[in-house]
Amino acid sequence: MELEDACGCGCEDEYAAMPILGEPAPDFTALTTQGELKLSDLKGKWVVLFSHPADFTPVCTTEFMGFAAVADELKALNVQLIGLSIDSVSAHLAWIHAIEEKMGVEIPFPVIADLDMRIASRYGMIHPAMSNTATVRSVFFIDDKGILRAMIYYPQTNGRYIPEIIRLVKALQTTDAHGVSTPVNWQPGEKVVVAPPKTVAQMKARAGEGYECKDWYLCYKSV
């Protein structure tokens, strides 16, 4: 399918557009397996929005079961999990029913039907070198103020690592709660990184602030 056929508007540039970290996540109203959903109505909650290439496919089925397994943990973190693919609500419902019937796993989160690719295009989920009619495996982390905070992209061939999604939510929430950063391989409960000093006075004061400093610019603390 040509790009112009896929969206009726010659939208190569639209497909190439990417949402920007630190800016409001593109708002949308969509039909889902749990009724109509408007993204901006979810302010006050964090949102993890993820796309999958297609219903009734092997890797996507394993991912849906994986997300279902952590849905309660995400809910406890004030996170609304939302799936999306370029399939109809009917296809989503049939697939969800099949997962529950065949795999014994109930899918508790809404799944968006994006047949016109409107949301997929606004979020840069369509990568034409991969497919013009199926999304890549993208994950968008939207905070409780509606700001896009992080993105992860995977190809259609490889499933996501769900623990990293949870870890990143916790890292972002820790940053917001304590005004800190998280170092490489950080896990919840481990020490975090404080901002480097901006003046000589601040640099000298570090010695008495109770931080674990490796150098003047690299200091850790517990939160």
TrEMBL record:
Residues 19-174 form the Thioredoxin domain. The active site is at residue 60. Its EC number is 1.11.1.24. One of its GO terms (molecular function) is thioredoxin peroxidase activity. It catalyses: a hydroperoxide + [thioredoxin]-dithiol = an alcohol + [thioredoxin]-disulfide + H2O. Pfam families: 1-cysPrx_C, AhpC-TSA. Substrate binds at residue 137. The keyword Thylakoid does not apply. GO terms for biological process: cell redox homeostasis; cellular response to stress; hydrogen peroxide catabolic process; response to oxidative stress. It is an enzyme of class 1 (oxidoreductase). Disulfide bonds join 213-219. Keywords: Antioxidant, Cytoplasm, Disulfide bond, Oxidoreductase, Peroxidase, Redox-active center. GO terms for cellular component: cytosol. Homodecamer. Pentamer of dimers that assemble into a ring structure. Thiol-specific peroxidase that catalyzes the reduction of hydrogen peroxide and organic hydroperoxides to water and alcohols, respectively. Plays a role in cell protection against oxidative stress by detoxifying peroxides. Belongs to the peroxiredoxin family. AhpC/Prx1 subfamily. This is Peroxiredoxin.
